Amino acid sequence: MTKYSKGKVVRGTVTCIEPYGAFMSFDEYYTGLIHISEISKGFVKDIHDFVNVGDHIYVEILDVDDEEAHLKLSIKNINYKINGKPRRRKIIETPHGFTTLSKKLPIWIDNQLKKQKNQKNTIDK
Questions:
Q1: Angstrom distance (rounded) from CA 70 to CA 28
Q2: SS3 106
Q3: Torsion angle of alpha carbons 19, 78, 58, 37, nearest 10°?
Q4: Are 39 and 49 in contact, with CB atoms under 8 Å apart?
Q5: Cβ distance 73 to 34 under 8 Å?
Q6: Quick one: average pLDDT of 97-117?
Q7: Are 8 and 34 spatial neighbours (Cβ–Cβ below 8 Å)?
Q8: Listed residue (95, 88, 101) closest to 44, CA to CA
Q9: Full-prediction pTM beyond 0.85?
């Protein structure tokens, strides 16, 4: 019996990232893939938002292929970072904030009122 089994949580190293998933290595024999659908319960735009090459993370084993020494993996149901804090992008606040919108709003309202007035005049003719 192998030391890797379905449902077990093991630690590995991210070795490669592709648009469809992240590849990992565990020992001199076993490798695995975390498919993009197994990265998060939500939408994953960029896998790099979650893991990067060289990261040492925990993964849950979904399936084991002993003949190919390959594991199907998931991180969406576990706390996968070693320090317990998944990496998140920081919110970057701009100095403008909603200022631009508040300046444009009166112009947009005025334009819409003019359009409605023009439509009413066209209908009345």
A1: 12
A2: helix
A3: -20
A4: no
A5: yes
A6: 82
A7: no
A8: 88
A9: no
